Amino acid sequence: MCRMAPRIALWLALLSGLLMGADPEPARPPSADDDAIAPQHTEPLPVVVVVPLGNVDPALVKFVADSLTRRFFFDVRLHEPVPHPEAAWYAPRKRWRAEKILDALDHLDVGDAWRIVAITEQPISTTKGPVYDWGIAGLGSMGGKSCVFTSYLFRKLKKKEPDTYQRYMDNLVIHEMGHTLGLDHCPLERCIMADAKGNAIRAAKASINEFCPRCHRLIRAHLRATDVQGFWNRSELLLLDSIP
Ligand SMILES: [Zn+2]
Ligand SMILES: [Zn+2]
């Protein structure tokens, strides 16, 4: 009997981990009634532009915009589709170099938009350590203007497991946005900022799709130290549904 106890505890831990992973707290849209957390916006929200690269399912583009709107007080706008930048094409592997996409996005005319979030359905890659061309799900410039991600690695789930597909895509959108908010990778594999370490599906599966308290604090510290400080200090809370 005594030997059983740790096993039961382990199963309970595994089960609760599974439940956390399968059914994260649903994200809440900003609510005017929620005085405790809703900032009093006396000036415009930062504009975030969603840019489809090439041919992207309009439902996916809308999903990305909704995903951002659920988490952040942003004015999320849809940009018309733009072609993948020619300079980013990597012919040997027939995919697009993400860092070159980011370079091009930084020069895209998006008016006074604060951040650019680009979505493609095609494979993307970048250099990781000694590997020149490493396939990735997304790339975000740390504390920078732009991020890009692809649905390509999750494409087989789209019809087969639509709920899982959406959860993984939500994870990806917020993860890359997190990089532009100054976050590096997080050592906690349940945190939305965990490094995919070459396996985007495994990482998305392990994530609870939320920022851990440490990452939460780092976002605030980053925003306080940047030119958006005034706005965010007054707004105070930018995340609606994170772990306390
Ligand atoms: Zn990352
Ligand atoms: Zn974290």
Shape: globular
CATH fold-level assignment: Collagenase (Catalytic Domain)
CATH superfamily: Collagenase (Catalytic Domain)
Domains, number: 1
Strand content: 15-25%
Helix content: 25-40%
Indicate the mean pLDDT. 81
CATH architecture: 3-Layer(aba) Sandwich
Outline the structure in words.
- Mean pLDDT is 81; it is low at 1-39 and 229-244.
- This protein has helices at residues 4-22, 58-71, 98-106, 157-160, 162-180, 200-206, 213-224, 229-235, and strands at 47-52, 75-78, 89-90, 95-97, 115-120, 124-128, 131-136, 138-140, 146-150.
- The strands form two sheets. A five-stranded mixed beta sheet has the order 2-1-5-9-8, sandwiched between helices.
- It is α/β, with parallel strands linked by helices and 244 residues long.
- The protein contains eight helices and nine strands.
- The chain has a single domain (43-235), classed as Collagenase (Catalytic Domain), CATH 3.40.390.10.
- Helices cover 37% and strands 16% of the residues.
- One zinc ion binds at residues 186, 188, 191, 193, 211-212, 214-215.
Topology, element by element:
Elements: H1 4-22, E1 47-52, H2 58-71, E2 75-78, E3 89-90, E4 95-97, H3 98-106, E5 115-120, E6 124-128, E7 131-136, E8 138-140, E9 146-150, H4 157-160, H5 162-180, H6 200-206, H7 213-224, H8 229-235
Parallel strand pairs: 1-2, 1-5, 4-6, 5-9
Antiparallel strand pairs: 3-4, 6-7, 8-9
Bound molecules: zinc ion (2 copies).
